[in-house]
Amino acid sequence: MARAQSTAGEARRAVAVLLPLPLAGTYDYAVPDGMEVAPGDVVQVPLGTRALWGVVWGAAEGIDAARLKPIAALLAPQALPEISRRFVDWVAGYTLSPPGAVMRMALSVTGVLEPERPLLAVQRSAFAPPQGFRMTPSRQRVLEAACFPLPAAELARQAAVGVGVVEALLRAGLLERIKLPARPWPRPAPELPGPVLSPAQSAAAAALCRDIDAADYRVTLLDGVTGAGKTEVYFEAVAEALRRGRQVLVLLPEIALSQQWLERFRRRFGEPPVAWHSELTGRQRRLAWRAVQSGEAAVVVGARSALFLPFRHLGLIVVDEEHEAAYKQEEGVIYHARDMAVVRASLGRFPIVLVSATPSLETLANVEAGRYAVLHLPARHAGASLPQTELVDLRLQPPERLPGGEVGWLSPPLRAALAETLAAGEQALLFLNRRGYAPLTLCRACGFRLQCPNCTAWLVEHRLLRRLQCHHCGHQMPLPTACPSCGTEGRLAACGPGVERLAEEVALLFPDARRALFSSDAIGGPAALAEAVAAIEQRRIDLLIGTQIVAKGHHFPHLTLVGVVDADLGLLGGDLRAGERSFQLIAQVAGRAGRAERPGRVLIQTSDPEHPVMQALARHDREAFLAAERQGRRRQGLPPYGRLVALILAGHDPEQVDRAAQALARRAPRGKGIQVLGPAPAPLAILRGRHRRRFLLKTARDLLPQALVRNWVEAVKLPGGVRLSVDVDPYSFL
User: Which numeric CATH code is attached to 199-382?
Assistant: First the structure.
């Protein structure tokens, strides 16, 4: 609740307030007499004709408070602890983002500034029905279900009636409203016994627990093959942190797709962690935010934004699947959550664990330089062996035609392996990292290709929805029956496969197999994913067809065959990390096979079996691939052995954007170890209706590019219609 304000004449001292706006820094305000504010407090302040909330960032030095506008009210004392404010400043400085935009991520749930309304429930009263009250079957069901307090909507749902029936019983006095007391957050129990660990797992867990005991900053890479039991190892570190009264943050690349992880945590600690992700309701987010700030939330599992929650006693961070590109935020404040998590641990002086079966080259370079420690788990848990991996050369063994005469996408060896696996009563997975039915639709009469009107991208056909969709801006349109260019009907053709088209082929070849489509389009959220995973675990599914979401840590003990349909797909596009990403993704997908007592088999379809990525996958020789990748990056001065910063100008007027790009080019930094590439049209030259031009600043590893970029962009005044975004350490080059 806001405190009463004093008049401007009563102001005595000044403070700097950071507003949740993309501004260069703080604004100064006077503190009225009788109001006590401290750094971290959330206050209401005037800005022009508006009243905004902001965070007190510190004292305003050398300012005459009498000339300043006063703070209007104190909204929330000590909402942001000192460590959170230091972290905001560090992230803003490194990413060249406005501090207010970063701070807004730490206070993204503005509802926490208001008192939480009590949760009302309904229960049976002690009163008898009033005279003349008609007891219908639906009313009787409500009374039977109201034996303990429930929210009105939930009571109606359980009784299979409308909310109006509940309201009628309330008016009649047969039900009464009560306030539910706030329930304490469940606390995971570190004393519960975990699974029996192997000697290698026990040694790694002991090393992580020693780091917890030391209570100092240390980065450790937990590097283990797929199925090695890395999760069970870092759970021991989580237990040790809990025993010592510290909060724990576990970052997952896509928390909404990690139901199996949540269940494993519940089995190990008896209670679920506090979840933080975009699928939560507003109330759930408010309660979770407050629980983190108060320390009630002992363990938080979340996506990258969880890193900015106001932890007061954080003592351990775990970044699972640290190599995942999903940790990079590409819009707004552009940052990599793995790297910022390392910074957060450094500021708080506590350990952080990076976990992966296919670590990023950046992390391995830090291990090589001695900045990070490493723990190895070289073998699968419980005696399981790595799957046998075979390359299928599509030049020699191309897919055959389907019964209807169309060309298929599965080669004869993969078809045969599927038939053998299904006949044995085992499960199989077909992987194709392309959503929808087909990536391109063209007219066979005139050659016209259906393109997004807002982006330089083809529209992807989603046949299940009967729509064409742009995967960059979200534009959708119904699937036309005639060519929009020449008007010819019946000549539009789908080109190339997506997972929907692959599922169609599988239905023709194996009509009796029980199939499931595993993609973000087909899985409607955490609940749907949990149901799909349960169906696979209970062997109600024989064959999965999926995109990259099937690679994210799922454990299916009866899955013995993985077929990679188009392994060359990720090597296209000229991305400097294309080889690394392809190796990581295919290795992770291949790791779904043979994770229990049954041996696994992986078939990788490729038109370039001699490619270093394919050879490394076939031989399970990660080190040979990484050695070649390191050598190439070093030779070219590319990350992690050099630094990159991408600058992208975007605007609706292409000529205005080009003029701004030329002005920026004239002031580009120069010097030893500095190279500026561009301006050039971005690969996605138009995105969401904006024309885009890109610069790439390349510097030696020992040069910090932030000061160069800051001076560069400050020297050029951009027109109002042109927006500049800066991406330090870019991962995407679109």
Answer: 3.40.50.300
The CATH architecture annotation of domain 388-434+497-630 reads 3-Layer(aba) Sandwich (3.40)
What was the pLDDT predicted at 724? 96
* Structural fold of domain 8-113: GIY-YIG endonuclease (3.40.1440)
509 vs 724: CA distance, rounded Å? 51
- What's the mean per-residue pLDDT of the chain? 90
DSSP code at position 129: P
- The 3-state DSSP class for residue 614 equals helix
Give the number of other CB atoms < 10 A from CB of residue 406.
12
Give CA–CA dist 394/411, Å, rounded. 7
- In the sheet with 27-31, reading across from the earlier edge strand, the strands are 27-31, 13-18, 50-59, 42-47, 73-76
Q: How far apart are CA 489 and CA 218, in angstroms?
A: 65
* C-beta of residue 317 within 8 angstroms of C-beta of residue 352: yes
**Radius of gyration (C-alpha) of the chain in whole angstroms:** 29
Give this prediction's pTM: 0.87
Measured distance CA(237)–CA(692) in Å, rounded: 46
pLDDT at position 695 is 96
Averaged pLDDT for residues 465-492:
90
Q: Are 91 and 343 in contact (CB under 8 A)?
A: yes
First vs last C-alpha separation in the chain: 46
pLDDT by residue (tens digit) across 503-524? 999 999 999 999 998 887 777 6
In terms of pLDDT, which residue wins out, 131 or 669?
669
Measured CA to CA, the distance from residue 616 to residue 632 in angstroms comes to: 16
Q: For the domain 642-728, what is the CATH superfamily, name and number?
A: Ribosomal protein S10 (3.30.70.600)
Pairing of strands 299-302, 274-276: parallel
Position 152 confidence tier, pLDDT thresholds 50, 70, 90 = confident
Q: What is the pLDDT of residue 9?
A: 42
- Choose between 411 and 598: higher pLDDT: 411
Angle at 191 between CA 189 and CA 192, to 5 degrees: 75
How far apart are the C-alpha atoms of 145 and 440, rounded to whole Å? 53
Asked if the domains at 8-113 and 642-728 fall in one CATH topology, the answer is no
